[in-house]
Amino acid sequence: MTAPRLALIGTGGHGRGHLAQGIRLHEQGAVRLVAVADPHPPTADELPDGVERFTGGAELIAQAGADVAVICTPIHTHFELAAAALEAGMDVLLEKPTTATLDEFERLASLADRTGRLVQIGFQSLGSAAIGLIRSRVAAGEIGEVLRYSATGAWVRNDAYWARSAWAGTRTLDGRVVADGVLTNPLAHATATALALAGKTRAADVLSLEVDLWRAADIEADDTSVAIFDLGGVRLTTAVTLAAVARTDPYVEVVGSDGS
């Protein structure tokens, strides 16, 4: 069986982890790393022999001939790059948040259906056996009737974090929606995990949503916020901040009539 050809779009910042993983899988023979793209791509000495280097994702997609693309780029570029990769016949691992708007999300989902390609979002916890284990224990009645779900996170992000790029902490940039806030980007994992535990993974599963958005940092978007999801009979409350005095591990909780 021929190893799938892998391309990485966005190799700085969080993308460095994808680059290290891609090189490791390449060396193991699990994939063949064929191309990388970044405004400041790795040097040839940092890559296996023969890996093409590009400064733009669109150029890579048009020329690299990959089977799988990992996209780790600014939020407002997600839809265009993922759509182009799907049209080029690639499966996609797309970093969260999936897209900047719900309309882009729906268009991308439709495109994946039409092309028959796969799109996976970088919510690490959704690949954990813990999700299924907890859901089975809840279904078995171990905590009684489920009363509510919660997701809580407190991280520390200083001024340098918000100054790292032009899009960081913005709602829009050059007329394009970015929506880079604590709920949508850094601590979006908390909500995604809680919704998976609740088995509420489609838009229709959320009957209503209330948000209370605040900011402590000098940014346009939110860094300290609460979201309340009506899941039909129970609710999920997400409370997250990037302005904590100390970092703690985020957690999700399923609260029942006989325990949690």
Would you write up a description of this structure?
By secondary structure, the protein is α/β, with parallel strands linked by helices. 27% of the residues lie in helices and 29% in strands. It has 2 domains: 5-122, 3-Layer(aba) Sandwich (Rossmann fold); 128-256, Dihydrodipicolinate Reductase, domain 2. The protein has helices at 15-28, 57-63, 78-87, 102-115, 129-139, 159-162, 188-198, and strands at residues 5-9, 32-37, 52-54, 68-71, 91-94, 119-121, 146-156, 172-173, 176-177, 208-214, 224-230, 235-241, 243-256. The chain has a 6-stranded parallel β-sheet with strand order 3-2-1-4-5-6, with helices on both faces. A 5-stranded mixed β-sheet has the order 10-11-12-7-13. A hairpin with a 4-residue loop joins strand 11 and strand 12 (235-241). Helix 3 (78-87) runs parallel beside helix 4 (102-115). The termini are far apart. The model has no long low-confidence stretch (mean pLDDT 97).
